[in-house]
Amino acid sequence: MSEKRAVVLLSGGLDSATVMAIARDQGFSCYALSMAYGQRHVAELAAASRVASALRAVEHKVVSIGLDSFGGSALTDSTIQVPEEMGEGIPVTYVPARNTVFLSLALGWAEVLGAHDIFIGVNAVDYSGYPDCRPQFIAAFETLANLATKEGVEGRPFQIHTPLIAFTKAEIIRQGSALGVDYGLTVSCYQANEAGEACGVCDSCRLRAKGFAEAGVPDPTPYRSQV
């Protein structure tokens, strides 16, 4: 039987680590892809490296794309403050076109590898209102992928896998724990320090802490402030 290859978008956070564990459990050889996109901190890239090693990625690439040259997000522009409470509408932590760019790069590598499966940890339940985390976006991108590539046109279609899209954060944590994910390796905070310590006040920290509490799983996160 030929090797089943998949490209897994790996941010270093809780969700993407769980997705990679799911892909491995489904029998895929995982090629992890992370992005240095001009985010506020590099702690998540260090976390991605740890996760890729722990989950035995065949290869782990880090691609620099510099979305901070555009700004427009609290994650890529230091003049925009990271919110401490979840508000109404699309938050300032939304990075314009991020998942479109990430999936496009994953698609390019997948085609070179002969992989027809791409995994991404988007979530439409416990998330911050990002438009590029919705099922409609994923379906549209999969259609695009199969129109825009040699593989797709020649009848070898790509599939975009979003195994967490309908999960709560607690369900994600339970799933990953069952698959042996070490969440102590991951970083979810929007403004973690170089040591990977989480701020404990941003909405990502709050969602993470709430997820562990609801899952009944000890939270291994080193928080600088009490959540």
What is the overall silhouette?
globular
Number of domains: 1
Number of strands: 5
Question: How far is it from the N-terminal to the C-terminal residue, by CA?
Answer: 48 Å
Strand residues, percent: 5-15%
Structural class: alpha/beta
Physical arrangement of strands within the biggest beta sheet: 3-2-1-4-5
Number of helices: 7
CATH superfamily: HUPs
Radius of gyration: 17 Å
Low-confidence stretches: none
Mean pLDDT: 93
- Second rung of CATH, namely the architecture: 3-Layer(aba) Sandwich
Give the ordered list of helices and strands. Answer: EHEHEHEHHEHH
Can you describe this structure?
The protein has 227 residues and is α/β, with parallel strands linked by helices. The chain has one domain: Rossmann fold (3-Layer(aba) Sandwich), CATH 3.40.50.620. Helices cover 36% and strands 11% of the residues. The protein has helices at residues 14-25, 43-54, 98-113, 135-148, 150-153, 169-178, 203-215, and strands at residues 5-9, 29-36, 59-64, 117-119, 159-161. Strands 3-2-1-4-5 form a 5-stranded parallel sheet, sandwiched between helices. Helix 1 (14-25) packs across helix 6 and helix 6 (169-178) packs across helix 7 (203-215). It is globular, with a radius of gyration of 17 Å. The mean pLDDT is 93.
